[in-house]
Write a structure and sequence with these properties.
The chain has about 450 residues and is of the alpha+beta class. The chain has 3 domains: about 120 residues, Immunoglobulin-like (Sandwich), CATH 2.60.40; about 120 residues, Dna Ligase, domain 1 (2-Layer Sandwich), CATH 3.30.1490; about 120 residues, Dna Ligase, domain 1 (2-Layer Sandwich), CATH 3.30.1490. It contains 8 helices and 26 strands. A hairpin with a 5-residue loop joins strand 7 and strand 8. Helix 5 runs antiparallel to helix 6 and helix 7 runs antiparallel to helix 8. The chain is flat and about 100 Å long.
Length: about 450
């Protein structure tokens, strides 16, 4: 085709493209202007410095100081940042549903003495929103701005976004720290006291010399504490803690030691599915979910490291597994392992598949220790692996099962030998994973 004949087509395409983009721009601008016209207040959340919510005789006053919001009335307290941010966003983006125009009499709409008022200061100017009765159909509310008599309606959703209780707006965080700040943790639950101390990067249970702490589970316990929240505030200035079970001796105490000091929580009597609690001696009595104490108990019970092996799966270069005389051997070659079976069959598997199986073994935990066998016995199944130096890292032998159906395993690592019973399900899962490795990968 002659290039000159293409020029008109290119010009037509450019004109159409420009026309389409111009149309889209004008349509977008029209929609933005329409949306802006529906906003009751032209402001940004950063413009707000004070917000007051009034409902009958109740008043909640929020004040911004140094970019942080705090409650100053009816009490002085920190705020829940997410909840306050949501309130500010709802106020700044508030839209009307309908414009009902000027009204000579606002009393029929419940706006002579409005049941709910939002007063706020934005850029130094005081504004207000009065919320009256519901409209017929209960889907909207009548509102007016400032001292105007111009009537609008807003949706029930928008009204509820502004109508927050002091409890909803208060900070409900029980513990506030990052895990790397924690130097010690002390938990007392009834007669049990657990004192855990961090030295360098290792945690120790004080008074339990041979107790090896699972670092990952302790880190998980600390995260659970930071994620726990107050359910409700019961008594701001309690004169007697005994009715709440917080004195003379609480049912539980949790102390987290940090470089600046400590954070403490005591739990008292149970109320429904919650516990009474107090963060410090002068703090309010609050309610916390009962799951908090349950999770702490469960974490402490599972804190001992009962794994056979805690090494790095990526450091293993050779492993073998199977019944004696029918073992498979795998040797690492960069990102693959070369497998050789008992009948000299040979193929390769991605290294990641074998490492996943080793991770399963790494999670296998001892249920209880058993006395080592007095006489050698033929193992039913073997798992051995070596590191980069060719040194035997460990040898696991299945010896049989206990009367209760657990599997008896003998583990040798260096000069250490451990005989223990383990749950059958996770051990069978490990064997199944190893069995699947003996199936050649499908060819694409």
């Amino acid at each position: 085709m002659n290039p000159k004949k293409l020029i008109p087509l290119v010009v037509i395409f450019i004109v159409l493209a420009v026309s389409y983009l111009a149309s889209q721009w004008h349509q977008g601008r029209k929609e933005r202007l329409a949306k802006e016209a529906k906003r009751l207040f032209a402001l940004k959340t950063t413009d707000l410095t004070e917000v007051v919510l009034k409902k009958g005789k109740q008043e909640i006053r929020l004040l911004r100081r140094d970019q942080a919001w705090e409650i100053t009335t009816p009490l002085k307290a920190r705020t829940d940042k997410a909840m306050v941010d949501s309130l500010l966003a709802a106020l700044a983006s508030l839209e009307m549903n309908r414009d009902l125009g000027e009204q000579n009499n606002l009393e029929p709409y419940g706006l002579t003495n409005p049941p709910f008022l939002v007063e706020f200061t934005a850029q130094g100017k005081k504004r207000r929103l009065a919320v009256g009765h519901k409209t017929p159909g209960d889907r909207s509310y009548y509102v007016v701005r400032d001292q105007e008599s111009h009537l609008f309606t807003i949706s029930s959703y928008h009204k509820d976004s502004l109508d927050r209780s002091v409890t909803a707006l208060r900070d409900k965080i029980l513990f506030q720290f990052s895990n790397n700040q924690v130097k010690a943790l002390k938990v007392t639950i009834g007669p049990l006291t657990a004192e855990l101390q961090k030295t360098d990067l290792t945690w120790r249970w004080q008074g339990r010399q041979n107790f090896k702490v699972r670092q990952d589970r302790l880190e998980s316990l600390l995260r659970q504490l930071t994620m726990s929240r107050i359910r409700d505030f019961v008594n701001e200035h309690p004169k007697d803690l005994r009715p709440y079970g917080l004195a003379p001796k609480p049912s539980a105490e949790i102390i987290v030691l940090l470089p600046p000091g400590r954070q403490r929580l005591v739990l008292g009597a149970k109320k429904g599915n919650s516990y009474y609690a107090q963060q410090d001696a002068q703090g309010p009595v609050v309610l916390v979910e009962q799951e908090l104490l349950q999770k702490v108990k469960q974490s402490l019970a599972s804190l001992q490291d009962r794994r056979f092996w805690t090494g790095e799966a990526s450091s293993i270069t050779r492993l073998s597994w199977g019944p004696p005389g029918k073992t498979w051997t795998a040797t690492r070659d960069k990102d693959y392992f070369t497998l050789i079976g008992p009948d000299k069959q040979e193929f390769r598997q991605p290294a990641v598949r074998l490492e996943v199986a080793l991770l399963k073994f790494q999670e296998l935990e001892q249920e209880r220790l058993l006395p080592p066998p007095t006489t050698p016995s033929e193992p039913q199944f073997l798992l051995e692996f070596s590191d980069k130096t060719g040194r035997l890292t460990g040898r696991l032998a299945e010896l049989g099962q206990t009367p209760t159906g657990q599997v008896t395993l003998l583990w040798r690592q260096g000069d250490q030998t451990t005989c223990a019973a383990v749950a059958r399900a996770p051990y069978e899962q490990l064997r199944q994973d190893l069995e699947r490795l003996t199936q050649p990968p499908e060819r694409k």
